[in-house]
Structures are given as C-alpha cells and as structure tokens.
Amino acid sequence: MTVSKERKAELTAEFGNTPQDTGNPKVQVAILTERIRELTEHMKSHQKDFHTRRGLLMLVGRRRRLLSYIKKNDILEYRELIAKLGIRDNIQ
C-alpha cells in the first residue's frame, strides 16, 4: 500500500523543481494524494479495517495542512496544483 519507487520518482520529476526535490510541498502533496487514492480503494473492500482508516485520516490531515501552506504563500500555484491532481478546493 505504498507508492512504488518509480512512481515517486515520476511525481518528483513532474511536481518538483529538480528530479531530487522531494522536500517541495507540491511533491509531498502529490505523493500523499497517490497514497490516499490507494488507501481509499483498499477501504472500499475492507470497511472494517479501522487501523487503515486512521492512517488514511492522518494522511488527509497532513495533505490539508500542506495545501493550506501552499495556498497561503502562492494562490496561483495552489490552484494549478489542485487542478493537476484532481482534488477539490476545500481549504479555508
């Protein structure tokens, strides 16, 4: 249920400034979004897996904090990122 090394490299190259720029908040949001999608699919077939549910909620919270940081610093970058990732804008 983790993102493969190759997929992380693709996301880092796409959203980062350099191919090794894993600390960039945009890259972190992209990787978290990938993990959230995988865990969401897992939860559809395993509704009573409460340990995974807690982990999923923690990932969603971390992604939300990173998105609010990006929105606070650069609103255009934020809008572009959520459009690329296909996530909703619900950050106040």
Automatic annotation (TrEMBL):
Q: Where is the composition biased (Polar residues)?
A: 15-24
Keyword Ribosomal protein (UniProt): yes
SMART domains to which the protein is assigned, alphabetical:
Ribosomal_S15
Q: Which UniProt keywords apply?
A: Ribonucleoprotein, Ribosomal protein, RNA-binding, rRNA-binding
Q: Which GO terms of the cellular component aspect does the record hold? A: ribosome
Which Pfam family is one of those matched by this entry?
Ribosomal_S15
* UniProt keyword Cell wall biogenesis/degradation, yes or no: no
Region entry Disordered: which residue ranges? 1-24
Which stretches are tagged as biased composition: Basic and acidic residues? 1-11
Which InterPro entries does this entry report, sorted A to Z? Ribosomal_uS15, Ribosomal_uS15_bac-type, uS15_NS1_RNA-bd_sf
Q: Give the protein family.
A: Belongs to the universal ribosomal protein uS15 family.
How does this protein assemble?
Part of the 30S ribosomal subunit. Forms a bridge to the 50S subunit in the 70S ribosome, contacting the 23S rRNA.
Annotated function: Forms an intersubunit bridge (bridge B4) with the 23S rRNA of the 50S subunit in the ribosome. One of the primary rRNA binding proteins, it binds directly to 16S rRNA where it helps nucleate assembly of the platform of the 30S subunit by binding and bridging several RNA helices of the 16S rRNA.
Name of the protein in question:
Small ribosomal subunit protein uS15
List the gene name: rpsO
